[in-house]
């Protein structure tokens, strides 16, 4: 029975994806109105914002939350649309900048580790493969629902990107190295590590934060340059990706240097346009020493 239900939902999502984005944004507006009324994860979002921006007023916090709701709904329908989006439309909606550096690395026999975040539209991030001549790799954490896990993998592989389970990534990367196959690994690295996996803490958005060190380890293992993949929302349904070099000689970098560079760059991006980050995630569930401003209660 559960399988039938899942197939029905996935089938409905496919039908919805046939609609043009301009129509899907009408549904997005409706969904946004609903989640504002029910206060979707409002407590979590407010808490994250208040800790991250202790100097902002209650009205400023509320404004960011409402803008975040709007972006989150757009993200949901933009993700669904991938199923029936043409390559031409994706190229039109996602523009890539600074790609000369990427191709220069490949010409010099180097692979690239690209770190990014749950910012902008990370589900459109795999479309980068349309612009690079190397193997594009997406590292993912499997979903508990096997039907939707397969559904999301289909979306993420549509443009030719290869998907590696995060548990087997190092092994798969070694295989690519042995075949001398150039690759670009995209790592969404801003999620919280599990409690037993925490190896490094740093200051991020005014809070003591446990951070993933996998990207740095991957870069050192493969001796690859590290870039920050900055996905900026230009307007509704249109994004630009900037490739920003973080570390050329990763093998000789100091411990946690690459991780700190990534965190500092992500922090500056979020401070500039906070509404495009995933505030509904319990990012600091293991963190202590948080500072909060008590008058931002709405």
Per DSSP, what share of the residues sits in E-state strands of 2 or more residues? 15-25%
Mean pLDDT score = 93
Order of helices and strands: HHHHHEHEEHEHEEEHEEH
Structural class: alpha/beta
N/C terminus separation: 42 Å
Query: What is the count of structural domains?
Result: 1
| Residue share in helix | 40-55%
- Record the strand order, biggest sheet: 1-9-8-2-5-3-4
* Poorly predicted ranges: none
Q: Count all strands and give the number.
A: 9
User: What's the number of helices?
Assistant: 10
Outline type: globular
**Whole-angstrom Rg:** 20 Å
- Please give the largest β-sheet: 7 strands, mixed
Notes on the structure:
The chain has 298 residues and is an alpha/beta fold. The chain has one domain (2-276). The protein contains ten helices and nine strands. The chain has a seven-stranded mixed β-sheet with strand order 1-9-8-2-5-3-4. A two-stranded antiparallel sheet has the order 6-7. The longest helix has 24 residues, at 58-81. It is globular and about 50 Å long. It starts with a helix and ends in a 26-residue tail after the last helix.
